[in-house]
Amino acid sequence: MREIVVLSGGVGGARFTRALRDALVDEDARIRVVVNTADDMWMAGLRICPDLDSVTYTLAGVNDEQRGWGRVGETERVSAELHEWGIGWPWFTLGDLDLGMHIARTSLLRDGVPLSGAVSRLTARWDLGVELLPMTDDEVETHVLTDEGSMHFQEWWTRHRAQLPARGFEMRGAGSATPAPGVVEAIESADAVLLAPSNPIVSIGPILAVEGIRQALAATRAPVVGVSPIIGGSVVRGMADACLTAVGTATDAAAVGLRYGARSAGGVLDGWLVDDVDAAEVPELESAGIASRAVPLWMTEPEAARALARDALALASRRG
Ligand code: GDP
Ligand code: CA
Questions:
Q1: Please, what are the averages of pLDDT over each run of 10 residues along the chain (320 residues)?
Q2: Which residue in 35, 40, 170, 200 is deepest, having the highest Cβ count within 10 Å?
Q3: Residue 320: other Cβ atoms inside 10 A
Q4: 39 in Cβ contact with 11 (< 8 Å)
Q5: Interval between CA 257 and ligand 1 midpoint (Å)
Q6: Which first-to-last residue range defines the signal peptide (predicted)?
């Protein structure tokens, strides 16, 4: 059985993971997804885990494909009530179905179940076809440093639409966080580790900031292959360019690959996929020790997304 581990953020990682699952539907494969939890927060007494929920909803097929996030058929009656009382953030609306997930999760956490246990319990409701693992059971929160002080990542991203210049990011708690149960074992026994085309700074960045995960990635026999979230010098969707700019990295497929670095030189990548339009960047990446290929990276159509997943696996097995 082929064992594959994916490192994932929210929406971008979810689309890639769904495509990978669907591409391998006829194969004996085990897919485990290590999901970023540094966007998580407490709000209105509830633990909100945006990236875990994006991946869960997408794999379960209950996501709102048109809007791009959240549950399909969502209503917002509870949030409207909370806003009347001034509870929570006025600029942050949670859907009613989504709130059901947060209440269920918080209930389990309050009973002493670790986040990883809550995730396996909550995802068991659907046949996801993959196993989700939070990167850690410890609380890690990304804070953004701005000229107006530091704030939770969600405030910067949602309220300020990433328009407030960021001076840097602080993954609070990441330094002392330990990988959730199963994460290190999954990476160690994997045949391939894939970095989804997720935000490199605030989605993949916090996962790599967990020391135990970084060590496992350095030690694994599996090739580590990433997919660029940047195509032709721009983010496909979202505002990841604001994150890259803040840390002094160009919004460019090669720059992101080089920022991850070659595993042979202390980085994390053996391989890197860039889009066809960025084919000219392949030699630079290769000379930095990262086996690179130019292939179509758009995941707009399901078949194109599955082809991308196959390309990532092909690059991984080429080295293996
Ligand atoms: P978030 O946590 O919901 O922001 O989602 P992720 O961090 O997992 O992914 C966001 C990133 O996905 C964005 O920065 C985009 O650059 C990338 N992305 C979205 N759609 C596509 C696509 O079709 N192709 C590629 N290559 N990247 C994409
Ligand atoms: Ca996220």
A1: 97 98 97 98 97 98 94 97 95 95 98 98 98 98 96 95 94 97 98 98 98 98 98 93 96 98 98 98 98 98 98 85
A2: 35
A3: 11
A4: no
A5: 15
A6: none
Residue 247 to residues 80, 170, 231, 255: CA-CA distances in angstroms?
37, 11, 19, 12
Q: How many domains in the chain?
A: 1
Supply the residue whose CA is at minimum distance from atom 24 of ligand 1. Answer: 298
Query: 315 and 227 in contact (C-beta within 8 Å)?
Result: no
Give the count of beta carbons closer than 10 Å to the beta carbon of residue 249: 17
Q: Which atom of ligand 1 is nearest to the CA of 13?
A: 8
Say which CATH number the domain at 18 has. Answer: 3.40.50.10680
Residue nearest atom 4 in ligand 1 by C-alpha distance: 10
Domain with 301, as residue range(s), is 2-40+127-138+174-319
**Closest residue to atom 17 of ligand 1, CA basis:** 229
- Residues with CB under 6 Å of ligand 1 are 8-13, 51, 54, 196-199, 203, 227-229, 231, 235-238, 240, 297-300
Among all bound ligands, the one having the nearest atom to the CA of 10 is: 1
**Predicted pLDDT of residue 320:** 41
Please report, for the chain, how many H helices and E strands are present, in that order.
Answer: 13, 14
Q: Is residue 64 part of a domain?
A: no
- Supply the residue whose CA is at minimum distance from atom 1 of ligand 1: 10
CA 12 / ligand 1 centre spacing (Å): 3
